[in-house]
Design brief:
The structure is a single chain. With about 350 residues, the chain is an alpha/beta fold. It has two domains: about 1-185 and about 220-245, Rossmann fold (3-Layer(aba) Sandwich); about 195-220 and about 250-290 and about 310-340, UDP-galactose 4-epimerase, domain 1. It has helices at about 10-25, 65-75, 90-95, 95-115, 155-175, 195-205, 225-240, 255-270, 300-305, 315-325, 330-335, 340-345, and strands spanning about 1-5, 30-35, 55-60, 80, 125-130, 180-185, 185, 210-215, 220, 225, 245, 250-255, 280-285. The strands form four sheets. A seven-stranded parallel sheet has the order 3-2-1-4-5-6-11, sandwiched between helices. α5 (about 155-175) links the parallel β5 and β6 (about 180-185). The structure holds nicotinamide-adenine-dinucleotide (NAD) and thymidine-5'-diphosphate (TYD).
């Protein structure tokens, strides 16, 4: 039996990964380790919380004593590491927290893996989930490949780049069995409404202004979150140690075009007259150091491991809107209390 420690499993992507592995591999034991920060929510996992092959542990990856004890007690065969501070805007206001969780937390996990697996690294695996933002920004042309030099610009991407370097260093120096994947922007259900798509859905629903940074000309490459979970499964099981894979959907959208499409879908779903939601678009002060364009070349993953994205964006976006509109309780729970304070601080001066 395989025991996999998944970190950050109560967050957006982590909850999809946990659900995927629990459903797909009844003979694996999945342990979800999460601190339950503002972004972690066990309600994301209600569907699988009583399964025999799933358990939850609350804990902080920055606490090395706790992490070492967890490895000793649970003896995992593999780690899939997603726990992180993940929002660029928050990294601009509070960079140190990103260094602690994303860098120090990752090194704590690597140290525990190095120590407790040292008899034989070959049948163990440390899978580090990273982002395309480590590559920096593109101009109008070109795409990020696995060979693109790292050039992070935000404290978030700098902390993720640093954690990627540590993972590589542990493979090269100690022979740890590692894999890294760098994925483009994800979208789908259970996405915390600080990120563009769920924030816009929530605001449109409540007739609040939809803040678009700068002129809305920045481009992101959007991937259905379940396609990311499926890619992690394929890479986890098939990649050679030391490999890196880019994951992306060949699906670039200018922010303003994406928001207009979302407004159109929301008008239809909410029975509003066409053009109503677009009136909510509000251009606000740009993000500092705002990367212009991300675009992922995932040819290597498609060619070597046969993964391809499954959903067209329009269909995925409509499914996402449907999920938010039929999960009002989830949305109102995560947007009460601290979220209001965050929103005020983030947007009142823009
Ligand atoms: P998220 O913010 O939704 O979730 C992060 C999870 O980590 C939360 O459940 C949180 O409670 C947990 N966590 C935070 N600090 C912790 C700590 N110190 N100890 C234990 N748990 C802690 O993030 P997400 O969007 O699901 O991203 C997951 C991973 O995927 C991150 O590593 C991120 O860098 C990467 N990624 C995200 C995207 C994206 O579009 N969201 C794209 C590519 C890669
Ligand atoms: P975001 O969802 O924060 O993801 P990331 O910064 O990691 O790509 O933002 C996606 C894009 O949308 C990015 O170009 C910034 C922009 N954006 C807005 O225009 N308004 C907003 O309120 C937010 C949160 C983001």
């Amino acid at each position: 039996m395989k025991k996999i420690l998944i970190t950050g499993g109560a967050g957006f992507i982590g909850s999809h990964v946990v659900r995927w592995f629990v459903n797909a591999y009844s003979d694996y034991q999945i342990i979800n380790l999460d601190k339950l920060t503002y972004a972690g929510n066990l309600a994301n996992l209600a569907e699988i919380e009583n399964r025999n092959n799933y358990s939850f542990v609350k804990g902080d990856i920055t606490d090395s004593t706790f992490i070492n004890k967890l490895f000793l007690d649970e003896k995992p065969d593999a780690v899939i590491h997603l726990a992180a501070e993940s929002h660029v805007d928050r990294s601009i206001s509070n960079p140190s927290e990103f260094v602690m969780t994303n860098v120090v937390g990752t090194v704590n996990l690597l140290n525990a893996a190095k120590e407790y697996w040292r008899d034989d690294y070959s049948n163990k695996r440390f899978y580090h989930v990273s982002t395309d933002e480590v590559y920096g920004t593109l101009g109008e042309k070109g795409m990020f490949t696995e060979k693109t030099a790292y050039d992070p610009h935000s404290p978030y991407s700098a902390s993720k780049a640093s954690s990627d370097h540590f993972v590589r260093a542990y493979a090269d120096t100690y022979g740890l069995n590692t894999v890294i994947s760098n994925c483009s922007n994800n979208y789908g259900s259970h996405h915390f409404p600080e990120k563009l798509i769920p924030l816009a859905i929530n605001n449109i629903k409540n007739n609040k202004p939809v803040p678009v940074y700068g002129k809305g000309e920045n481009i992101r490459d959007w991937l259905w979150v379940e396609d990311h979970a499926r890619a992690i499964d394929v890479i986890f099981h098939n990649a050679k140690s030391g490999e890196t894979y880019n994951i992306g959907g060949h699906n670039e959208w200018k922010n303003i075009d994406l928001i207009r499409l979302l407004c159109k879908i929301m008008d239809q779903k909410l029975g509003r007259e066409s053009g109503t939601s677009e009136k909510l678009i509000a251009f606000v002060t740009d993000r500092a150091g705002h990367d212009l364009r991300y675009a992922i070349d995932s040819t290597k993953l498609q060619r070597e491991l046969g993964w391809t994205p499954s959903l067209q964006f329009e269909e995925g976006l409509e499914k996402t809107v449907d999920w938010y509109l039929s999960n009002e309780e989830w949305l109102s729970n995560v947007t009460s209390g601290n979220y209001q304070r965050y929103y005020e601080e983030q947007y009142s001066l823009r």
